[in-house]
Amino acid sequence: MIKKRLIPCLDVRDGRTVKGIQFEGLRDAGDPVALAARYAREGADELVFLDITATNQRRQPLTELVREVARVLDIPFTVGGGISSVADVEALLLSGADKVSINSAALARPAFVSELARRFGSQCVVVAVDARFVDHQWQVMTRAGTTATGWEAVAWCREAANLGAGELLLTSMSHDGTKAGFALDITRAVSDAVPVPVIASGGAGQASDFTAVFQSGGADAALAASIFHFNETSLPSLKSYLHQAGIPVRL
Length: 251
Prior knowledge:
Blueprint: E1 5-13, E2 16-21, E3 24-30, H1 32-42, E4 47-51, H2 63-71, E5 77-80, H3 86-94, E6 99-102, H4 104-108, H5 111-120, E7 125-134, E8 137-142, E9 147-152, H6 153-163, E10 167-172, H7 184-193, E11 198-201, H8 207-215, E12 221-224, H9 226-229, H10 235-244
Parallel strand pairs: 1-4, 1-12, 4-5, 5-6, 6-7, 7-10, 10-11, 11-12
Antiparallel strand pairs: 1-2, 2-3, 7-8, 8-9
Helix pairs in contact: 1-2, 6-7
């Protein structure tokens, strides 16, 4: 049976890990290198590093910091933020990333997803989807969640998978940082619509939220930040809880 994955996320701004609510009100959560080492030690299945200001600042990702984080990891490592070219991806992979997460660049030019999949393999390409519930539907946002795209979330996820994305990182902006639980409806809808793994993100507040997103939401993996960063739960205790609940996880 395929194991469900737990993935801490490092949202990085100015070299520090930060966390807010619905992409706003960011507060410092610590040194990304130290946090990465801790999560690898505690049994994280993977780690995601998102340079959250790179796209809006129109700059390349922080490759030197990515290199420092990669040095302390022995688990799969995904990096996103500011990626807009094949050269950006090559630089990140050479810096120690195993996968890249693209969002705004994929929406601006969908063929970019296919280009990366052909060059590096679909297993390397994660398309991140930031969705907000507006006017009775889940709308895809771009540029760090600041701009509506006109895409409905399930439709864009299906398109991204068809273009060659190996995974989808689905974040509910409406749930992000609220600790009210994952968005089970859109997670299930996307999981049912695509043939690739779906990583659920946004809203984790307690252990039972993970059980719900794996069972009711159909997610293949769950990403969280603040509950790990601020020691509200630990990866070992969460995995033990999920194992006892019958969720297949790597112990």
